[in-house]
Design goal:
Keywords: Transferase. It comes from Glycine max (Soybean). This protein has 16 helices and eleven strands. It is α/β, with parallel strands linked by helices. Helix 3 packs across helix 5. The two termini are 12 Å apart.
Length: 375
Amino acid sequence: MEPPFDHLLRRLHPPVTALVADVELHFPVAVARRSNIPVALLWTMSASFYLTLHQLGSLVRNHSLKVDVLDDYEEHIPGISAAQLADLRTVLRENDLRFLQLELECISVVPKADCLIVNTVQELEAEVIDSLRAMFHFPICRIAFPYFKHETCHFVTNDSDYNVDYLNWLDHQPSMSVLYISLGSFLSVSCAQMNEIVSALNTSGVCYLWVVRGEVSWLKEKCGDRGLVVPWCDQLKVLSHPSVGGFWSHCGWNSTLEAVFGGIPMLTFPLFLDQVPNSRQILEEWKNGWELKRSDLGSAELITKDEIVQVIREFMDLGKRKEIRDRALEFKGICDRAVAEGGSSNVNLDAFIKDVLCVQRSLRGRGYVMYKIGK
């Protein structure tokens, strides 16, 4: 893609002032450098997972990437906490190494950029962000930008395409009674595990809203009258709804942030890549969730119906989960303040925009503009 992008960039009029590019599109940095254009790279996962990958890249720089690459190291590695080392071992053990190699190649170009934009909140990952700021010579811009004043946003959605009024359904449920379930867009659980989940939900007596991509008709037939199964929903609206009391999640970073902004306790069920470290953050650092315990991700061992029933009943019991509910509300307050006027994300966004405008003013009269590219 690099040659056609380079060609397009040179043809644009007015000329480009600056680029914002997804980290995983590594070629824009090279193109921008040849054209002497400033480039900001956008990292869409957590700051913690970026640091984990950076540390992994440093440790394997002179080695091939393999599952046992850390076996030559002691239990303690200078500059890496015990939790980060555990994350490294988990990421190596439970992921396809081809994906990890691709991620390492992508982040290798970050030092050549002029700015790194991280989709996070300063207060959620303060220590990690301090480590990143010490690592690079350029600004680390922390912006949880999709969530500014989310309660007043009017999203363009395709709810009508599915002919399911899930918000109306939520309006008719008791406060904090609904378990919202979403296990991601790309990877899912096995059919056998799905059957255990369905059976557990029917037995538990818990009300639930379950988003399942693709064909959902067979689930609708099996899920009874206490649940609603839909192929899509506006997740941020759902997590902000007063009837929703918990989120059973795969722990993708966007879902994790949306749960934090919604003040919703999480039941973690990680499946892939950064989701396991994200789950650890939820359980050990933020303490705003519980874990649906499982064996290694690649294992064929199922979490049984009875195990799931016990966990979700306790998770949705207001008395038993008071501590994580209080923590969830505490973090919601932190994030609300971060995106409010004068908050950390608000200030960071303003600073980034001012930096771009300074570049534009310095090129006034030459007709330069700024472009954003990404996945």
